[in-house]
Amino acid sequence: MTATVKALWALVLPAIIIDGLKFGIFTPTEAGVVAAFYALFVGLVVYRELKLKNLFHVLVASGKMTSIVMFLAAAAMVSSWLITVANIPGELTAMLGPLMENKLLLLMAINLVVFLVGTAMDLTSTVLILTPVLMPIITAARLTF
Q: What's residue 54's pLDDT?
């Protein structure tokens, strides 16, 4: 019971984000800002695990991680554009035509491709590169979600 009480401040954060978005109190971008300031407040004041002297180093590390993710996203978008310009989605749709009759087999083939690519690449890059490739196939097969 004491562990739950200690973790209550941290457990409130997802509720703040979800309820704020659900009730239209703030936009997704504003939700990120609210979450960041709430986490900063909880770390500095409530749990006292984050010290003011370490705050600069934490912010620098966060900036470095953000720049890495943005660089990966930019590289993935360039790759995605090249794949689209080369008409690879159209060629794959024509090649996978026989599989479109059996939707389960098509989904298994797509899962295999995503699995193989995902073993070698980051999740963000995989999604950004494969979405423009796979969406025409999914649309042509009339798969619904």
A: 92
21/23 Cα distance (integer angstroms): 6
Residue for token pair 């993710």: 69
Q: What is the pTM of this model?
A: 0.60
With both helix axes pointing from N to C terminus, report the angle between 28-41 and 2-22 in degrees, rounded to the nearest 10.
Answer: 160
Nearest to 75 by CA among 126, 145, 11: 126
Cα 54 to Cα 59: distance, rounded to the nearest angstrom = 9
Average confidence score pLDDT of the chain: 88
Look at residues 92, 102, 107, 7 and name the one whose alpha carbon lies nearest to residue 47: 7
Residue extents of the structural domains in the chain: 1-50, 70-145
Residue 1: the pLDDT is 66
